[in-house]
Design goal:
By secondary structure, the protein is mainly alpha-helical. It has one domain: Cytochrome Bc1 Complex, Chain D, domain 2 (Orthogonal Bundle), CATH 1.10.760. 41% of the residues lie in helices and 5% in strands. It has a two-stranded parallel ribbon with strand order 1-2. Helix 2 crosses helix 6. The chain starts with 5 loop residues before the first helix and ends in a 5-residue tail after the last helix.
């Protein structure tokens, strides 16, 4: 890992902006509804939209199988392209660019719920 650059920034961001501990319990059913409403316009989030999403965007089940899936979902709003169109209440806006899609407004509780939903997905290899 380089001392500067995107990797260092994401590590710093995860440490600073994650308000809930890594094992925080959210509501998986609510997280699924949030993901289906907002995330499914770009991602396949589960069986409900298996043929949806954007082809170049990783699915939630694929991301869940990655070793760092939890960090990815805890900090998704700071990872490109999310800072342009995702706003999490209480978290500094990370982009001054105009949104290229309808803005998604979430709370930290919503992020925890999405995390609980993803955690409920099978971690099959």
């Amino acid at each position: 890992m380089r001392p500067h650059g995107p990797t260092a920034f994401l590590a710093f961001l995860a440490a600073v902006t994650t308000a809930a501990p890594a094992d925080a319990a959210g509501d998986a059913a609510k997280g699924r509804r949030i993901a289906e409403r907002h995330c499914s316009r770009c991602h396949v989030v589960g069986d409900g939209n298996r043929l949806g999403g954007i082809g170049s965007t990783p699915s939630f089940p694929l991301l869940r199988r990655m070793g760092d899936w939890r960090e990815r979902f805890e900090t998704f709003y700071a990872r490109r392209p999310h800072p342009v169109h995702v706003r999490v209440e209480g978290v500094r806006k990370w982009s001054g660019l105009p949104s290229n899609a309808a803005v998604i407004r979430l709370t930290q509780e919503d992020v925890d719920d999405i995390l609980a939903f993803v955690e409920s997905l099978p971690a099959r290899r």
